[in-house]
Amino acid sequence: MSSTATTKPRTIKTTEKYTGFLSRVAKSFQESVGTIVFGMEDGTVSIFGLVFGVAASAPDSQAVLLAGATGAAAAAVSMMAGTFLDVESANDAAKTKLAELRDRVSKDPSGADGALRQRLVAGAHVVRG
After folding, report:
1. Residues 64 and 55: beta-carbon distance below 8 Å
2. CA–CA separation, 18 vs 24, rounded Å?
3. What is the C-alpha to C-alpha distance for residues 38 and 12, in angstroms, rounded to an integer?
4. CA–CA distance, 93 with 84 (Å, rounded to integer)
5. What pLDDT is recorded for position 10?
6. Residue 60 has what pLDDT?
7. How far apart are CA 71 and CA 52, in angstroms?
8. What is the arithmetic mean of pLDDT over 24-51?
9. What's 9's DSSP letter?
10. Does residue 124 have a pLDDT over 60?
11. Angle at the Cα of 117 (from 112 to 121), degrees rounded to 5?
12. What is d(CA 91, CA 123) in angstroms, rounded to the nearest whole number?
């Protein structure tokens, strides 16, 4: 057998490919359960309050159903807008921090190199114990 023997490239099976994705989704879901339950509770209480208020004063059930449906739609749009704005503001903050870091590195590249070396050395000491 020669020393220049080549190895076959490893092929990834479809199940292996999706296992990592599914584990990330499961972890994200587990970390978000409290937020999901709180959001469902909050939305349910708001809709029930609306429906009960309309039911107490409406002469027929069609008005109650219409109020419940429009309230649920309004709550969904409101939650969607809130989530969108939250994600956008987090992205803006990250972009601003990255721009500041790039500006600082471009002004003093040697200082950035020194700071990076210090962090790497400190990390190596922590890993070694």
Report:
1. yes
2. 10
3. 39
4. 14
5. 59
6. 87
7. 12
8. 79
9. P
10. yes
11. 150
12. 28
| Cα–Cα distance, 5 to 104 (Å, whole number) | 48
Of residues 92 and 46, more confidence is placed in 92
Q: Is residue 71 part of a domain?
A: yes
**pLDDT tens string 83-122:** 888 889 988 999 999 998 888 878 887 777 777 778 878 8
3-state secondary structure 12-80: CCHHHHHHHHHHHHHHHHHHHHHHHHHHHHHHHHHHHHHHHHHHHHCCCHHHHHHHHHHHHHHHHHHHH
Tokens coding 41: 């509770």
Whose tokens are 């990250």? That residue is: 94
Number of domains making up the chain: 1
Its domain, for residue 106, covers: 16-128
- The token duo for 123 is 């990390």
Q: Is residue 1 part of a domain?
A: no
Residue 4 lies in a domain: no
End-to-end CA distance of the chain: 42
Q: Is 113 part of a structural domain of the chain?
A: yes
Q: What is the pLDDT of residues 68-81, one digit of tens each?
A: 899 888 888 888 88
